[in-house]
């Protein structure tokens, strides 16, 4: 026998203190006494001579004291949460609660938690470890810890909208805990059967199922949502791919879907492809939140909706000074991704060195060839230094064009970086000479587009954001410079999207969706016949606690009954 809330010595000490307290209160209890007085005016004197409470006198009413003591001790023991200590075990036990999207249906998570708690209570404390599903398996209960801690830690657990990481955790040996080399291990799994599909028992490790989520036979879900530049050629719009399927894998009818932008339902122009996928055509790419959902939800809500924050392709406002090279001005005016505007309204300016024109804006500055490199990138004080290992290539200047520019200027063409208050790019004026050939090169419009986009720090083109995968940035494919926030995180391998919902990368907001075709189909499939759930080893409720409370209640009822019949004061 052990107690979850307090150690044994604290339970005994509390019981002794409770008995002493009740004894003292019973002694000091007011007692009725019949006193005869000669006159009514002597009642005050009689009260002083015969007080209601006297501590030093013979103890009476043993039955009342024993009853109240029994009730108090029973409630005290129930509050201490007694449990029968399981016997020693020669096998290590690892419990894994797969609180991923597979447990979002009905009350699957609550049932899995109850089964987990019952099994943990009936396992040797020194040989058990409990883990919670996540990008990395998180320990919830270490060997030897009190199961009461597990109950409290599970209170805040919610099923996350992400694929299961159980197979990954087993493959990468994240589930160590109580297990030791040379000792057999039993892994108890609580989740959706598909989460453990790729995990098999081995000679030293046996997999058992403690709880498996029930299937949603009529499940339907959104399994794809992504954006690409509009086929119409409008630079400020995007085409959105949407796919929703039923339990049989067939497409969901268009009228069973609802579309919204920034939380408001909208009517969209839809093109149905032969494969059943839908194309929402010419959606305004202004950074808004586009969402699609099922018109009627089912019992598995994890895949009933998906959302995507559209790329912001509104034209970059560019101001051109009178000294701006004609080739640059021509490339800006012909590119629908840019809009020529006044300096006070501009995001970026193009000017010559020394011109007092939009000096408080990021600028493409045309300079005379001097001691500095042909391309000088100035980066802001709050950002990391740009990587110049492939800077010119990323701006659309190939190695052949670099050699051609070097022959034309008779100088080495290179790039360098400098820190500053804001972004800027300084380029030799000789590179914009019409006779040099660079303005006529195929890569020149790309150079202008990507340079101005980098200066404006435009939003990246994120085609989709799927939970359980790395974030994808396709800015380079569509004439945008790679986003610095994503690039910095990519260097650290920190672009993994662990679950669906709104997330941030620096100040960049990203809407992540589940959109997992396999998960949607598996949620509708019944558990395979060769997969069986091990019966719960102990009661799913705390029987000792309930029994003690019930007995205390019965004794309280008995005390009330005896008092009503006059058998006890």
UniProtKB/TrEMBL annotation:
Protein name per the record: Aerotolerance regulator N-terminal domain-containing protein
Membrane spanning stretches: 6-28, 62-79, 543-562
PANTHER family, sorted: BLL2463 PROTEIN (PTHR37464)
UniProt KW Transmembrane helix keyword: yes
Domain of life: Bacteria
Organism (species): Brevundimonas mediterranea
Keywords (A to Z) from UniProt: Membrane, Transmembrane, Transmembrane helix
């Amino acid at each position: 026998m052990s107690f979850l809330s307090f150690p044994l010595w604290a339970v005994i000490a509390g019981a002794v203190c409770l008995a002493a307290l009740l004894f003292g209160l019973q002694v000091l209890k007011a007692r009725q006494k019949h006193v005869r007085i000669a006159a009514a005016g002597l009642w005050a004197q009689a009260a002083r001579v015969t007080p209601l409470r006297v501590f030093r006198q013979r103890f009476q009413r043993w039955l009342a004291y024993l009853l109240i003591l029994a009730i108090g001790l029973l409630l005290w023991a129930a509050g201490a949460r007694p449990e029968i200590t399981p016997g020693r075990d020669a096998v290590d036990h690892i419990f894994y609660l797969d609180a991923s999207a597979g447990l979002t249906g009905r009350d699957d998570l609550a049932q899995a938690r109850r089964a987990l708690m019952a099994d943990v209570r009936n396992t040797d404390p020194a040989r058990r470890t409990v883990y919670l599903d996540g990008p990395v398996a998180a320990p919830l209960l270490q060997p030897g810890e009190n199961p009461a801690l597990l109950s409290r830690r599970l209170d805040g657990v919610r099923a996350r909208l992400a694929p299961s990481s159980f197979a990954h955790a087993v493959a990468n040996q994240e589930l160590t805990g109580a297990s030791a080399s040379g000792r057999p291990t039993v892994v108890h799994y609580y989740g959706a059967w598909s989460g453990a599909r790729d995990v098999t028992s081995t000679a030293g490790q046996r997999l058992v199922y403690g709880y498996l989520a029930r299937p949603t036979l009529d499940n339907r879900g959104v399994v794809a949502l992504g954006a690409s530049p509009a086929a119409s050629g409008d630079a400020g719009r995007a085409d959105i791919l949407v796919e929703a399927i039923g339990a049989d894998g067939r497409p969901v009818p268009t009228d069973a879907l609802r579309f919204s932008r920034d939380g408001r339902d909208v009517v969209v122009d839809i093109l149905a492809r032969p494969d059943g996928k839908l194309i929402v055509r010419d959606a305004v790419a202004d950074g808004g939140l586009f969402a699609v959902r099922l018109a009627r939800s089912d019992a598995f809500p994890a895949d009933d909706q998906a959302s995507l924050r559209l790329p912001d392709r509104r034209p970059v406002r560019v101001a051109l000074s009178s000294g701006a090279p004609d080739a640059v001005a021509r490339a800006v005016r012909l590119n629908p991704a840019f809009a020529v505007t006044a300096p006070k309204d501009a995001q970026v300016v193009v000017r010559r060195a020394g011109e007092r024109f939009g000096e408080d804006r990021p600028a493409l500055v045309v300079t005379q060839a001097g001691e500095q490199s042909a391309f000088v990138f100035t980066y802001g004080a709050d950002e990391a230094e740009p990587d110049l290992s492939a800077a010119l290539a990323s701006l659309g200047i190939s190695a052949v064009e670099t050699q051609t520019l070097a022959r034309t200027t008779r100088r080495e063409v290179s790039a360098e970086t400098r820190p500053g208050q804001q972004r800027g790019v300084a380029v030799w004026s000789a590179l914009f000479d019409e006779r040099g050939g660079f303005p006529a090169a195929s890569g020149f419009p790309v150079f202008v587009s990507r340079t101005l986009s980098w200066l404006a720090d435009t939003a990246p083109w994120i085609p989709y954001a799927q939970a359980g995968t790395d974030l994808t940035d396709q800015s380079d494919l569509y004439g945008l410079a790679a986003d610095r926030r994503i690039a910095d995180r990519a260097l650290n391998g920190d672009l993994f999207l662990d679950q669906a919902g709104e997330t941030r990368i620096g100040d960049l907001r990203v809407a992540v969706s589940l959109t997992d075709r396999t998960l949607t189909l598996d949620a509708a499939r019944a558990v395979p016949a060769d997969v069986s759930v091990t019966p719960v080893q102990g009661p799913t409720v705390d029987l000792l606690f309930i029994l003690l409370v019930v007995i205390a209640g019965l004794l309280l009822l008995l005390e009330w009954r005896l008092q009503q019949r006059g058998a006890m004061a």
